[in-house]
């Protein structure tokens, strides 16, 4: 399985009164990474894939550590955990240098803007997404994640 890597700069305005990146800002970070990932297939080679539109059906976010402003960007890794006929699930980790700040997932539904309704994933899109499909299709390594959570709580 491949992962998509997106380098996301932090802005001073992303911080809240407590001195760390506001929880709502992480949704924007995920959006930037998701758009970069999904539109890699479409515009450059003339393919209409994903360019017709998509909607977010669901977000899940686990905040692991506070992220404070700095000049270096964070890395957002994205991969696919599920492909259905008319939706897909993208998983993410926002991290740097071994620190995971956020683990998240988004259910995305391809959307036909002209018809005003959801549409099925095309074969071309499916082939692209399969390159990023998680090998065990669970999205994360639960034992490693659980151990990290215990370490973070103990600190």
UniProtKB/TrEMBL annotation:
Q: Determine the domain of life of the protein's source.
A: Bacteria
- Give GO terms: molecular function aspect only: fatty acyl-CoA hydrolase activity
Recorded coiled-coil stretches? none
What is the protein named? Thioesterase
State the species of origin: Streptomyces scopuliridis RB72
From the broadest rank down, the organism's phylogenetic lineage runs:
Bacteria, Bacillati, Actinomycetota, Actinomycetes, Kitasatosporales
């Amino acid at each position: 399985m491949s992962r998509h890597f997106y380098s996301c700069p932090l802005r001073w305005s992303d911080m809240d009164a407590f001195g760390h990146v506001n929880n709502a800002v992480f949704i924007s970070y995920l959006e930037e990474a998701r758009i970069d990932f999904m539109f890699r297939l479409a515009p450059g080679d003339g393919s209409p894939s994903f360019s017709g539109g998509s909607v977010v059906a669901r977000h899940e976010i686990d905040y692991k550590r506070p992220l404070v402003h700095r000049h270096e960007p964070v890395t957002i890794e994205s991969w696919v955990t599920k492909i259905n006929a008319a939706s897909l699930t993208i998983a993410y980790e926002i991290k740097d240098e071994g620190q995971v700040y956020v683990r998240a997932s988004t259910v995305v539904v391809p959307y036909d803007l002209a018809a005003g309704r959801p549409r099925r994933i095309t074969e071309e899109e499916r082939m692209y997404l399969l390159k990023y499909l998680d090998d065990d299709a669970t999205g994360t390594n639960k034992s490693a994640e659980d151990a990290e959570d215990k370490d973070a709580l103990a600190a």
